Amino acid sequence: MNADLERLIALQKLDSTADAARKKLAAEPEHELALEARLEAAKQQVAAAKEQLAANKNARAALEKDVAVQQGRLSKFRETAMAVKTNQEYHAVQHEITFAQTEIKKIEDFILERMMESDDFTAALKTAEAELAAETKAVEAERRAISAAHVELQASLERIAAERAALIAGLNQSVFATFEAVARKRNGVAVAEARGGVCTICHVRLRPQVFNSAMRNDSILQCDSCNRILYFVPVPASAETAAADQPQQPAS
Ligand SMILES: [Zn+2]
Description:
Blueprint (H helix, E strand, L loop, with lengths): L2 H24 L1 H56 L3 H83 L3 H13 L5 E5 L2 E2 L8 H9 L12 E3 L5 H9 L7
Parallel strand pairs: 1-3
Antiparallel strand pairs: 1-2
């Protein structure tokens, strides 16, 4: 194979790997935001459960105050009942006593309901706290994984930069200029495999003489359509029949 062509294929592999690494690095802030959102959601659940429990506690305190007021009235009525002189007065105060007792019973039922609710709210708070603890752990693990990946990606970018410089140093500079010009126009991909008579990236059928030359891998040729530099991977003898069954179709 033409030595420059071989270097260009290697260069393309490096560039594509570096591009993928840079994309992963660029996605890190977004990933971190997603992790923060996960934690925030779990924290909100805990806060909501706490709020619910606090409201329940306040409601119970208010009801207990009401019971105390009614109990105060009740004992006053009972004292009055001891001192009444007439039957009419006795019935009147008895009526007040019954009323206060009914009120107390009603409020105590409300208190019981609030207490049962409080058990549910306490359980909900425990669940929310357990979820927050689990999310915190999971998010920390993800952050460690991200920062380990970050170190690896940076190291691989440095390795690639060194390998790239070495490759470029051995490359014909006008060939390299062509590679760079195509890469800039074609989203960083400047070489394409020619297979079955077509350029495998833009899918346009190559002129027969271009494809035949590309098959020899001995010169720098460009696809007429996308301008990518073409190379050919010889098909192993065993795969030739299988490839013949599925001819490549050019894109319209
Ligand atoms: Zn092409």
